[in-house]
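Project outcomes to date are best conveyed with an example. Our students and postdoctoral researchers have been running inverse folding experiments weekly, and each run begins with a structure described purely in C-alpha coordinates. The record below, which covers 219 residues, was selected by the lab manager from last quarter's runs and is presented without edits.
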Protein backbone atom coordinates (compact mmCIF):
# COMPACT_ATOMS: atom_id res chain seq x y z
CA UNK A 1 0.00 0.00 0.00
CA UNK A 2 2.91 2.30 0.77
CA UNK A 3 4.46 1.61 -2.63
CA UNK A 4 1.11 2.26 -4.31
CA UNK A 5 0.70 5.51 -2.42
CA UNK A 6 4.22 6.75 -3.14
CA UNK A 7 4.56 5.90 -6.81
CA UNK A 8 3.08 7.95 -9.61
CA UNK A 9 1.78 5.64 -12.29
CA UNK A 10 0.78 8.12 -14.96
CA UNK A 11 1.34 6.38 -18.25
CA UNK A 12 -0.32 5.84 -21.58
CA UNK A 13 -0.13 3.60 -24.58
CA UNK A 14 2.10 5.36 -27.14
CA UNK A 15 2.85 8.15 -24.67
CA UNK A 16 4.58 11.00 -26.55
CA UNK A 17 3.58 9.66 -29.98
CA UNK A 18 6.60 11.20 -31.75
CA UNK A 19 8.92 8.92 -29.76
CA UNK A 20 6.98 5.90 -31.01
CA UNK A 21 6.94 7.24 -34.60
CA UNK A 22 10.75 7.46 -34.48
CA UNK A 23 11.08 4.05 -32.86
CA UNK A 24 8.91 2.57 -35.60
CA UNK A 25 10.41 4.35 -38.60
CA UNK A 26 14.07 4.40 -37.64
CA UNK A 27 15.29 2.98 -34.31
CA UNK A 28 13.68 -0.48 -34.37
CA UNK A 29 14.42 -1.13 -38.09
CA UNK A 30 18.09 -0.27 -37.42
CA UNK A 31 18.24 -2.56 -34.40
CA UNK A 32 16.61 -5.32 -36.42
CA UNK A 33 19.21 -4.97 -39.17
CA UNK A 34 22.20 -4.68 -36.80
CA UNK A 35 21.36 -7.45 -34.31
CA UNK A 36 20.01 -10.97 -34.56
CA UNK A 37 17.77 -10.31 -31.56
CA UNK A 38 15.62 -7.61 -30.02
CA UNK A 39 15.79 -7.59 -26.25
CA UNK A 40 13.81 -4.73 -24.81
CA UNK A 41 13.48 -3.68 -21.17
CA UNK A 42 10.88 -1.16 -20.07
CA UNK A 43 11.89 -0.01 -16.59
CA UNK A 44 9.03 1.40 -14.49
CA UNK A 45 6.39 0.16 -16.94
CA UNK A 46 3.34 1.03 -14.79
CA UNK A 47 0.37 -1.03 -16.09
CA UNK A 48 2.25 -2.44 -19.08
CA UNK A 49 1.32 0.31 -21.54
CA UNK A 50 4.92 0.92 -22.68
CA UNK A 51 6.06 -2.68 -23.27
CA UNK A 52 2.76 -3.55 -24.99
CA UNK A 53 3.07 -0.47 -27.25
CA UNK A 54 6.58 -1.57 -28.24
CA UNK A 55 5.31 -5.11 -28.90
CA UNK A 56 2.68 -3.72 -31.31
CA UNK A 57 5.35 -1.86 -33.27
CA UNK A 58 7.66 -4.87 -33.42
CA UNK A 59 4.84 -7.14 -34.50
CA UNK A 60 4.03 -4.78 -37.35
CA UNK A 61 7.69 -4.42 -38.37
CA UNK A 62 8.53 -8.10 -38.31
CA UNK A 63 5.24 -9.41 -39.70
CA UNK A 64 6.02 -12.90 -41.02
CA UNK A 65 9.63 -12.94 -39.73
CA UNK A 66 8.52 -12.77 -36.09
CA UNK A 67 8.84 -16.52 -35.64
CA UNK A 68 12.44 -16.52 -36.85
CA UNK A 69 13.69 -13.40 -35.04
CA UNK A 70 14.49 -13.56 -31.34
CA UNK A 71 12.23 -10.98 -29.62
CA UNK A 72 11.97 -10.57 -25.86
CA UNK A 73 10.26 -7.63 -24.22
CA UNK A 74 10.35 -7.29 -20.45
CA UNK A 75 8.46 -4.72 -18.42
CA UNK A 76 9.18 -4.26 -14.72
CA UNK A 77 7.57 -2.11 -12.07
CA UNK A 78 7.85 -1.89 -8.30
CA UNK A 79 4.05 -1.88 -7.87
CA UNK A 80 2.75 -5.46 -7.80
CA UNK A 81 -0.88 -4.38 -8.35
CA UNK A 82 0.08 -2.41 -11.47
CA UNK A 83 1.90 -5.47 -12.83
CA UNK A 84 -1.14 -7.66 -12.05
CA UNK A 85 -3.35 -5.36 -14.10
CA UNK A 86 -0.78 -5.40 -16.90
CA UNK A 87 -0.72 -9.19 -16.88
CA UNK A 88 -4.54 -9.25 -17.11
CA UNK A 89 -4.09 -6.93 -20.08
CA UNK A 90 -7.55 -5.34 -19.79
CA UNK A 91 -8.01 -1.63 -20.39
CA UNK A 92 -10.96 0.76 -20.67
CA UNK A 93 -11.56 2.82 -23.82
CA UNK A 94 -10.29 5.92 -21.96
CA UNK A 95 -6.97 4.21 -21.30
CA UNK A 96 -6.53 3.52 -25.01
CA UNK A 97 -6.99 7.06 -26.30
CA UNK A 98 -3.61 7.22 -28.05
CA UNK A 99 -3.92 3.80 -29.68
CA UNK A 100 -4.36 3.96 -33.46
CA UNK A 101 -7.35 2.12 -34.88
CA UNK A 102 -5.13 -0.33 -36.76
CA UNK A 103 -3.61 -1.49 -33.43
CA UNK A 104 -6.99 -1.50 -31.63
CA UNK A 105 -8.36 -3.76 -34.36
CA UNK A 106 -5.37 -6.08 -34.66
CA UNK A 107 -4.03 -6.26 -31.09
CA UNK A 108 -7.11 -6.05 -28.82
CA UNK A 109 -10.32 -7.91 -28.38
CA UNK A 110 -13.40 -5.97 -27.26
CA UNK A 111 -15.17 -7.79 -24.43
CA UNK A 112 -17.99 -7.00 -22.08
CA UNK A 113 -17.29 -7.34 -18.36
CA UNK A 114 -20.60 -8.31 -16.79
CA UNK A 115 -19.50 -8.13 -13.16
CA UNK A 116 -18.50 -4.45 -13.20
CA UNK A 117 -19.91 -2.48 -10.19
CA UNK A 118 -21.93 -0.08 -12.41
CA UNK A 119 -23.31 -2.71 -14.77
CA UNK A 120 -21.73 -4.31 -17.86
CA UNK A 121 -18.68 -2.46 -19.11
CA UNK A 122 -16.90 -2.58 -22.45
CA UNK A 123 -13.22 -3.30 -22.10
CA UNK A 124 -10.39 -4.07 -24.45
CA UNK A 125 -8.21 -7.10 -23.83
CA UNK A 126 -4.71 -7.37 -25.29
CA UNK A 127 -4.65 -10.36 -27.60
CA UNK A 128 -2.54 -13.45 -26.94
CA UNK A 129 -0.07 -12.73 -29.72
CA UNK A 130 0.98 -9.40 -28.14
CA UNK A 131 0.78 -10.86 -24.63
CA UNK A 132 3.12 -13.68 -25.58
CA UNK A 133 5.78 -11.17 -26.69
CA UNK A 134 5.86 -9.40 -23.30
CA UNK A 135 6.92 -10.59 -19.84
CA UNK A 136 5.81 -8.36 -16.97
CA UNK A 137 7.44 -8.67 -13.57
CA UNK A 138 7.29 -6.89 -10.26
CA UNK A 139 10.78 -5.70 -9.43
CA UNK A 140 12.65 -2.69 -8.17
CA UNK A 141 14.80 -0.93 -10.79
CA UNK A 142 17.78 -0.64 -8.48
CA UNK A 143 17.85 -4.30 -7.45
CA UNK A 144 16.87 -5.47 -10.93
CA UNK A 145 19.77 -3.64 -12.55
CA UNK A 146 22.21 -4.81 -9.87
CA UNK A 147 21.19 -8.42 -10.54
CA UNK A 148 21.56 -8.08 -14.32
CA UNK A 149 24.70 -5.93 -14.13
CA UNK A 150 27.05 -8.76 -15.09
CA UNK A 151 25.02 -9.71 -18.16
CA UNK A 152 26.82 -7.16 -20.30
CA UNK A 153 25.27 -6.28 -23.65
CA UNK A 154 22.13 -8.26 -22.86
CA UNK A 155 19.52 -5.69 -23.98
CA UNK A 156 19.59 -3.62 -27.12
CA UNK A 157 16.73 -1.27 -26.26
CA UNK A 158 16.10 0.05 -22.76
CA UNK A 159 13.28 2.46 -21.96
CA UNK A 160 13.57 4.29 -18.68
CA UNK A 161 11.02 7.04 -19.12
CA UNK A 162 9.60 9.31 -16.46
CA UNK A 163 11.16 7.31 -13.63
CA UNK A 164 14.59 8.95 -13.30
CA UNK A 165 12.90 12.21 -12.29
CA UNK A 166 11.83 10.58 -9.03
CA UNK A 167 15.38 9.57 -8.09
CA UNK A 168 18.01 11.63 -6.32
CA UNK A 169 21.20 12.51 -8.21
CA UNK A 170 23.33 9.63 -6.87
CA UNK A 171 20.68 6.98 -7.52
CA UNK A 172 19.96 8.39 -10.99
CA UNK A 173 23.65 8.23 -11.91
CA UNK A 174 24.05 4.66 -10.60
CA UNK A 175 20.94 3.59 -12.49
CA UNK A 176 22.17 5.15 -15.72
CA UNK A 177 25.64 3.60 -15.32
CA UNK A 178 24.08 0.16 -14.85
CA UNK A 179 21.87 0.70 -17.91
CA UNK A 180 24.92 1.76 -19.91
CA UNK A 181 26.71 -1.46 -18.94
CA UNK A 182 23.81 -3.60 -20.14
CA UNK A 183 23.71 -2.02 -23.59
CA UNK A 184 26.00 -3.15 -26.41
CA UNK A 185 27.51 -0.67 -28.87
CA UNK A 186 24.63 0.66 -31.02
CA UNK A 187 22.12 -0.34 -28.33
CA UNK A 188 19.53 2.36 -27.54
CA UNK A 189 18.26 4.10 -24.44
CA UNK A 190 15.06 6.14 -24.31
CA UNK A 191 14.39 8.46 -21.38
CA UNK A 192 11.47 10.79 -20.62
CA UNK A 193 11.11 14.18 -22.28
CA UNK A 194 12.11 16.10 -19.17
CA UNK A 195 14.98 13.83 -18.12
CA UNK A 196 18.60 14.67 -18.85
CA UNK A 197 21.75 12.56 -18.71
CA UNK A 198 24.77 13.66 -16.66
CA UNK A 199 27.58 14.77 -18.98
CA UNK A 200 29.93 11.78 -18.42
CA UNK A 201 27.15 9.33 -19.30
CA UNK A 202 25.83 11.55 -22.09
CA UNK A 203 29.28 11.40 -23.72
CA UNK A 204 28.89 7.62 -24.19
CA UNK A 205 25.85 8.14 -26.40
CA UNK A 206 24.88 9.78 -29.66
CA UNK A 207 21.59 11.65 -29.59
CA UNK A 208 19.86 10.09 -32.56
CA UNK A 209 17.39 12.92 -33.30
CA UNK A 210 17.89 16.54 -32.25
CA UNK A 211 15.83 17.37 -29.20
CA UNK A 212 14.57 13.83 -28.69
CA UNK A 213 15.61 11.73 -25.70
CA UNK A 214 16.60 8.71 -27.79
CA UNK A 215 20.26 7.76 -27.43
CA UNK A 216 22.48 5.25 -29.19
CA UNK A 217 25.51 3.87 -27.36
CA UNK A 218 28.51 5.00 -29.36
CA UNK A 219 31.18 2.55 -28.16
C1 LIG B 1 5.32 8.05 -14.10
S1 LIG B 1 5.31 6.31 -14.33
C2 LIG B 1 6.06 6.14 -15.91
C3 LIG B 1 5.54 4.97 -16.68
C4 LIG B 1 6.13 4.82 -18.09
N1 LIG B 1 7.54 4.53 -18.06
C5 LIG B 1 5.85 6.04 -18.93
O1 LIG B 1 6.76 6.83 -19.19
O2 LIG B 1 4.69 6.24 -19.31
C6 LIG B 1 6.63 5.79 -13.23
C7 LIG B 1 6.57 4.31 -12.89
O3 LIG B 1 7.80 3.93 -12.28
C8 LIG B 1 7.53 3.02 -11.23
N2 LIG B 1 8.65 3.06 -10.29
C9 LIG B 1 9.01 4.07 -9.47
N3 LIG B 1 10.10 3.73 -8.76
C10 LIG B 1 10.44 2.47 -9.15
C11 LIG B 1 11.48 1.56 -8.79
N4 LIG B 1 12.38 1.89 -7.87
N5 LIG B 1 11.52 0.36 -9.39
C12 LIG B 1 10.59 0.02 -10.33
N6 LIG B 1 9.59 0.83 -10.72
C13 LIG B 1 9.51 2.05 -10.14
C14 LIG B 1 6.21 3.51 -10.65
O4 LIG B 1 5.52 2.49 -9.94
C15 LIG B 1 5.48 3.96 -11.91
O5 LIG B 1 4.69 2.93 -12.44
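After processing, the design step wrote out the following sequence:
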Amino acid sequence: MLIRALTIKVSNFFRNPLVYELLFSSVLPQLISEFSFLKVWSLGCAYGEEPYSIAMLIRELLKKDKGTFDVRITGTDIDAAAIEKGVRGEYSADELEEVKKKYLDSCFQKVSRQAAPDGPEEIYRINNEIKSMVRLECSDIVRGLETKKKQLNSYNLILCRNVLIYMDKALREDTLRNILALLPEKGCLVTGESETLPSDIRSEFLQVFPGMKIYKKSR
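The CA atoms of residues 119 and 210 lie 49 Å apart. Residues 17-34 form the longest helix (18 residues). The training component of this project remains on track.
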